[in-house]
Amino acid sequence: MSLGALVPWWQQNRFFFATKTPRHKGSLSFIFIFEELIQHRCMSYLYYLWDDFISLLFPRLCYACGNHLLRNEDLICTQCFISIPRTNYHLTPDNPVAQLFWGRCQICKAAAFSFYNKGSRIRKLIHNLKYKGIKEVGYELGRIYGLSLRNSGFLDDIDLIIPVPLHPSKQRKRGFNQSEYISKGLADASGLTLELKSLVRVVVSDTQTKRSRYERWMNVEGIFAVAETEKLKGKHILLVDDVITTGSTLEACTCELLKIEDIKVSVVALAVAVQ
Ligand SMILES: [Zn+2]
Fold this sequence. Notes:
The protein is of the alpha/beta class. It contains eleven helices and seven strands.
């Protein structure tokens, strides 16, 4: 019998084999389980072959280092994931990010996932998110950070997550708000509600990168507005940004939110620039 004919032959006769072995009552299920195992193994093997073929045509690369991803890796390779320089600031209340806002505005808690060093992996990941539109990277990093924050109790008294908004014209141009995707990951990991409409950016501000701290503050003052005050009354808000440099943007958002009655504000970001 040829190998090709073996499969239909087996399908026709498997009941015969199963029922003709009455001494072993469990034989029917045994044969089916055995068959299932073989089929599963064959399918897995075929799937892997297909997966390898597709990877050859469209290689899956790590968004941080550009190396090929292994089968069990997604977006970021294990090496890069381990090497992200985490701050663990969420474990220390008076950490350097919290200190950044001392004397500027009343922030309850502040933390950042990683240090933003030159040439660092997190920098490459955020670049891919912001300028190449790889939104999944923002979501995934937000989700990973969200799990750490949730497990440490950092999020215990938070009511709502609000991403730092972009001006509508900038969001149209970019197609999305990077902080929104980070926030989505955070919200999914923590089960907290994401609020996207209450805080809006009403003025387009220029790029912040080459300004002094004072100039940055002047550049962001009054650029945010609260659209739905009632929704935020008495709530503890977690503001989410991609990178904290001088903290002026988060400060401007917080100042606007603190005008609401009985509100509390905490802030987190994916990275904090090392000064
Ligand atoms: Zn990598």
